Amino acid sequence: MLMALLVLLSTVSFTVEKHFCGDVLIDTAVFTEAQKCMMEAFEMEQALITKKNCCKDELEVVKGQDKLKLSKFEELPSIHKVFITSLVYSIFDLFETVDKEIIPHKDYSPPNLVADIQVLDQVFRI
Questions:
Q1: pTM of the model
Q2: Rg from Cα positions in the chain
Q3: What is the rounded distance in angstroms from the CA atom of residue 126 to the CA atom of residue 124?
Q4: What is the phi-psi region of residue 122: left when phi exceeds 0, alpha when psi lies from -120 to 50, beta otherwise?
């Protein structure tokens, strides 16, 4: 499970979007679009007049690994084959089923006691 999780996390790519208004970071978002500041609508009107815009967006793309090497069991070195085989064998050996325990006297009923011999003879273990 750990190896599957490690492969999944190493191959995931994602983007981080940041919205700045001037030099101030307004919002950061992962997998979604960053929220724009309220100055954006006002700046659009000013940008038409002054041709400047102080808001900017930055995108950072974090790329995961996209090429995985697949190899067959026959192509592995012999020491790896021995290790994998012994690991699989020992894991399957943990879950081996146990035979039912045979109890030979399960259906045996003891004889009826006529008298308690220990009390009659006054012989007790101490």
A1: 0.41
A2: 38
A3: 6
A4: left
Report d(CA 81, CA 39) in Å as an integer. 63
Beta strands in 22-94 (DSSP E): 24-30, 55-62
**Do residues 55 and 21 touch, judged by C-beta distance below 8 A?**
yes
Please give the mean pLDDT across all residues of the chain. 80
Contact 20, 56 (CB under 8 A): yes
Taking only the tens place, the pLDDT of each residue in 23-34 is 888 888 887 777
Q: Are 29 and 14 in contact (CB under 8 A)?
A: no
Report how far residue 59's alpha carbon sits from residue 12's, in angstroms, rounded to the nearest whole number: 17
Spatial distance between the Cα atoms of 57 and 33, rounded to a whole number of angstroms: 10
Q: Determine phi and psi for 21, rounding to 5 degrees.
A: -115, 105
